[in-house]
Every structure is written in structure tokens, then in C-alpha cells.
Write a structure and sequence with these properties.
single chain, alpha/beta, two-stranded antiparallel ribbon, 12 helices
């Protein structure tokens, strides 16, 4: 199980365990700095000012040692330009590593983004100018995301998306058939989220066999990282205590054994049957 991935045209080796904020988490600046000191250098910011954005803003020269991805909300070109400028001011930087179109769930949304006057054209221009390194997309619609990942710009022949961000965990394994074969063929990196399935994977189900102990958070992330198609698996701890638990993966890096992998897969199936609805 490799520990790093190469991202972008000017690749920086990033730790495959990434750190994300969701807007309802409570990581402080010192928590983010602690994660970076431990070797985490792929940061996914939700776009709401928080400890992560403040930590990046205070990095100075160390900024070049991390990859910052931001969940990008704009769909129109003018709106995208304003949002991009706001992001750079928040992080006190003259560039952004990854702008990820946030939760694009329908053809209509995608067509608006890539159509005339859409946000994609603005981000493509910023990328040509050097202010942006990669354009990504986040979606729960795996087959659509995989298809969009193959699209090329008719003017340049270049693929529109440099990376995809999809849900993947032991209870939601559809990316193994719907996304990874496509992205592997394209050489497109995939970042995964919801590795704990809202912590449901860490809990019991009515069908658990006698003596079964649900997996801890580090094992849930090891499950995701065991798949070589995953460039980065994001952890989104709510506080310092959860962060320390998640970073235990770094202390004992390596895949789960065959038995443990099968056990967590079976548990994932039980969680999918019994846990709360998660579309």
C-alpha cells in the first residue's frame, strides 16, 4: 500500500491520507498544523472560513509544500471569477492547487458549468494563466462523474477535468466498478470522501455475528487506501481527539490483512442494509 500519490503536471508527492473540513467541524489552526507536521499535505477546504483556511493563510513559504483543494460552488463564469478571487484572499495566496466543482449531481448542472459563459471556461483560463493547477469535480453520481471525466474541450482537445472526487467506503463500493476502471485508464487521480459513512461503519448492526467488534476509524481508512485507484482518502475529523485517532493510520501504515478486509466488507454490507438513509 503506497503512502503517497503524484498529482498534477508539476507533481508534488502527497500523503494518501488527506484532511478535510465540512463546515460543521471544529478543527483549530493548531490542529491543522499538527496534521501537516505529521505528514498530511493534501488539504480539502469546504469554502467556509475555518481553522483550515486560516492555517493555510499563515503558512508563508510552507504553502508550496501542501496541496489545497477547495470545494467550488460557482456555475457561471463571472460568479466563478469572483469566488476564485475571494478564495485567494482568504488563503493569502496567489494560486490555488485544485478547484473542485462541488456536488454536481445532474446533466443540467454540468451543462451549465461547461456551456458558454460557464464556470469551467473561467477556471480553464485561470489554469492557463498559472493561478490554478487542477480542475476537479465532486459528485455522488458515479457513472455521470466517470463520463464527465472523459470529456474533452472541443477547442483544445484537452480533458476538462484533472481529477474526480467520489464517495467510497466499505458500505459504498460502487466506485470499484463505475469509476476506477475509467480513471485508471485515463490516469486521472481520484480523491474519496465519506470513508466512515457518517461513522456508521464504526457502529454495530442487528446482523453482526456474535463477538464482532466494529472497525475503528483507522481501519475504515485503511480499507479505502488499500485500493490502488484511490489517490487520496479524505478524513474529516470533527475535533482534535478524532484527528489524533485518524492519524494513527500514519503510525502503522499498511493494508489490512485478507481476513480483516473481508470482515470489513461484510460489515459494510450490513451497514448498508441497516444504517440510516444515505443517498
Amino acid at each position: 500500500m503506497r503512502k503517497t500519490s503524484q498529482l498534477g503536471e508539476e507533481p508534488l508527492a502527497v500523503c494518501r491520507l488527506g484532511l478535510a473540513t465540512r463546515g460543521n467541524t471544529h478543527l483549530r489552526v493548531e490542529d491543522v498544523e499538527y496534521a501537516v507536521e505529521r505528514g498530511v499535505n493534501y488539504l480539502n477546504w469546504c469554502g467556509k472560513p475555518d481553522g483550515l483556511s486560516k492555517a493555510v493563510a499563515g503558512m508563508g513559504e510552507r504553502r508550496k509544500d501542501v496541496v489545497l483543494a477547495v470545494q467550488f460552488k460557482a456555475s457561471g463564469g463571472d460568479e466563478a471569477a469572483r469566488e476564485f478571487d475571494w478564495i485567494l484572499k482568504q488563503i493569502k495566496s496567489d494560486y490555488l492547487d485544485v478547484a473542485t466543482f462541488y456536488y454536481v449531481e445532474s446533466e443540467r448542472e454540468w451543462e451549465q458549468i461547461v456551456g458558454p459563459g460557464g464556470a469551467w471556461q473561467t477556471l480553464a483560463r485561470l489554469k492557463r494563466e498559472g493561478a490554478l493547477k487542477m480542475i476537479g469535480l465532486t459528485s455522488h453520481q458515479r457513472k455521470l462523474a466517470a463520463r464527465w471525466g472523459q470529456e474533452t474541450d472541443p477547442d483544445t482537445g484537452q480533458r476538462r477535468l484533472d481529477m474526480l472526487m467520489v464517495r467510497y467506503n466499505a458500505a459504498h463500493r460502487g466506485a470499484e466498478s463505475d469509476v476506477f476502471p475509467v480513471t485508471d485508464a485515463l490516469g486521472t487521480p481520484v480523491v474519496t470522501f465519506t470513508g466512515l459513512r457518517w461513522k456508521d461503519l464504526m457502529g454495530a448492526t442487528p446482523d453482526d455475528p456474535a463477538g464482532f467488534v466494529p472497525p475503528p476509524a483507522p481501519d475504515c481508512y485503511r480499507f479505502c487506501l488499500a485500493h490502488d485507484s484511490v489517490a487520496v482518502a479524505l478524513a474529516a475529523p470533527g475535533n482534535r481527539e478524532e484527528l489524533v485517532e485518524d492519524l494513527a493510520v500514519l503510525d502503522d501504515w499498511g493494508p489490512l490483512g485478507k481476513e480483516a478486509m473481508e470482515s470489513i466488507r461484510r460489515h459494510g454490507d450490513r451497514v448498508r442494509r441497516h444504517a440510516r438513509e444515505f443517498w
